[in-house]
## 1
Amino acid sequence: MTARLNRAQPYALGLFRIVVGLLFACHGAASLFGVLGGVAGTNGGTVPTGTWPFWYAAMIQLVAGALILVGLGTRGAAVIASGSMAYAYFDVHQSHALWPIQNGGELPVLFCWAFLLLVFTGSGALGLDRLFASRSAAAEKERASEPVAA
């Protein structure tokens, strides 16, 4: 049983990355474009362009979420996304109460730790990172096997 689960691990991690990236990108799209209900409490409204920190957070959510979704630059995007969620928790939520359940910060905490996990695990299966890595490894192998010109 353990061997089967170990073989499926890259695919489970890839599906985890896809779901988390999609959810994060949806938050950014809602804030920037008013889709999916828009910003919470605004009846479909958007974040005004350039407002600190909300507009910048929405841009990070959209771009990093999309990159994580497709598995391109996953580790770098996940570092930025995790940091933005840590900032959101400590700047916005922590001042209201100590525990995330009390201050409404469960979502930023979960996103922060999910992205931190992706920093250390990478994209898993089904990501563009692996496609490009396998192509560059094949090209490197081909170059190494070519005869040296005299």
## 2
Amino acid sequence: MVKQLVDGSDFRSAREALYEAIEGEGLVVGNALPFSQMLERTGQASPYQEAEIVQFCSAGLARQMVGEDAGQIVFCPLAIAFYVTKANPSVVVMAYRAPGDESSAKVQAGALLGRLVERAARLAKLRW
């Protein structure tokens, strides 16, 4: 897992910034999972004030990944989570699963995820 802390922002700004970063790469958000709300429905205590997982896909990268190994379907769609914890409500955290570096497509996927998170973190500080 790779994490990026975003000081000086808030959840809403981070959300908008992440969507902008994804769309800026010519990609489309496929789904957004309201993770904190899902946990609240279980009735158990949640560490999150707010948490969401954003899923998206690059058709070209997906084609390359499964061309290398059909089992790499597990990386599609790509996902970035972002959250604010109750313990530290002034810091937004963006995180993603690192696909590894065992193949060209995994390296490209990792670079894409890193680029998106870095750009979103910079934009989030603008507090849209």
## 3
Amino acid sequence: MAWIVLVVAGLLEVVWAFSMKQSEGFTRLAPSLVTLVAMAASFLLLVWSMRVLPLGTAYTVWTGIGAVGAFVVGIVWLGEGVSALRIMAAFLIVGGLVLMKLSSSA
């Protein structure tokens, strides 16, 4: 269950990163509110998952999901550039996440 909660926390990190971009420096109310609510929820779910998972594993997976998710959202919805090096970097992050999961005892 802790792993599922952690994945949801990571996905919420992607939501708040995207909505923060859409808030235009917190000058737009709706995206600003989404950012704050998603941040709080993501953080609380991370905290909950750390009751079972080791700190290093939980935090690395949480930030990794956020980083790769934001990378994908940037390409798909914001028209950010794609290059072989950026894709390779994302695959390396995902590989690190898989290794963290496999090395975790929880």
